[in-house]
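Sequence design from tokenized structure. All designs in this work follow the same two-part layout: the structure record, then the generated sequence. An example of the structure record is given first.
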């Protein structure tokens, strides 16, 4: 499974959501809490961090794990992915490198205690610290990709080989700038805007049809901003 973004970004968004629970309206808060409990979101997230079948593929990361190997100091502002694109030949990769060091300069990550016990916190940070990053350039016409892999993948050469081969097969055309499943997801999300105007119109028709005050309802539905090029608010 490929994650569009890093494991840590997923963790940050999860923490933001859990922290904001108390600020949500009662019905919405209760629904989110029910889903969190019934769908075992935290357990599934911790399982992702230990999975031997999940790889995170961030589009961009300011981190540069390659810097320690360089003698030149003029590339301090270059991210690892850009640097790997310049260094690597087609079908080459850089061995798994450590990403986080909580005993050094990196800080540990936390989730609200009411949702995640101290034991789960320790397990989560242990899994994050055991993660590794691999830079891989599948073809000469493709940039290097940054792959954040879990400890089980990093510790197994056969599994790592399978991951790299799987990534390479997703770059079957110069038109595909990232692994194909993520490329499709990105295109789909960017096309959702075209359907927003239709959704707005449908909601407005339903509201007007069930309202005793049509004029008042239309005024309440009207945007306070000038309509943009797509015809919506």
């Amino acid at each position: 499974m490929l994650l569009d973004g890093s494991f840590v970004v997923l963790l940050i968004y999860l923490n933001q959501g859990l922290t904001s629970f108390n600020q949500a309206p009662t019905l919405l808060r209760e629904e989110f809490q029910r889903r969190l409990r019934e769908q075992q979101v935290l357990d599934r997230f911790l399982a992702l961090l230990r999975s031997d079948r999940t790889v995170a593929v961030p589009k961009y990361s300011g981190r540069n794990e390659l810097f320690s190997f360089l003698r030149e100091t003029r590339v301090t502002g270059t991210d690892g992915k850009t640097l790997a694109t310049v260094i690597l030949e087609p079908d080459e990769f850089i061995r798994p490198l450590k990403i986080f060091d909580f005993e050094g300069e990196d800080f540990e990550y936390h989730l609200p205690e009411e949702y995640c016990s101290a034991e789960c916190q320790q397990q989560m940070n242990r899994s994050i610290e055991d993660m590794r990053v691999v830079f891989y350039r599948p073809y000469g016409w493709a940039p290097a990709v940054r792959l954040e892999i879990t400890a089980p993948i990093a510790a197994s050469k056969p599994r790592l080989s399978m991951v790299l081969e799987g990534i390479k097969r997703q770059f079957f055309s110069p038109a595909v700038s990232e692994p194909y499943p993520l490329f499709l997801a990105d295109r789909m999300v960017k096309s959702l805007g075209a359907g927003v105007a239709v959704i707005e119109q449908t909601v407005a028709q339903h509201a007007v049809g069930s309202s005793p005050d049509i004029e008042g309802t239309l005024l309440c539905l009207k945007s306070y901003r000038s309509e943009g090029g797509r015809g919506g608010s």
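Residues 193-209 form the longest helix (17 residues). We note this feature because it recurs in several other targets discussed in the main text.
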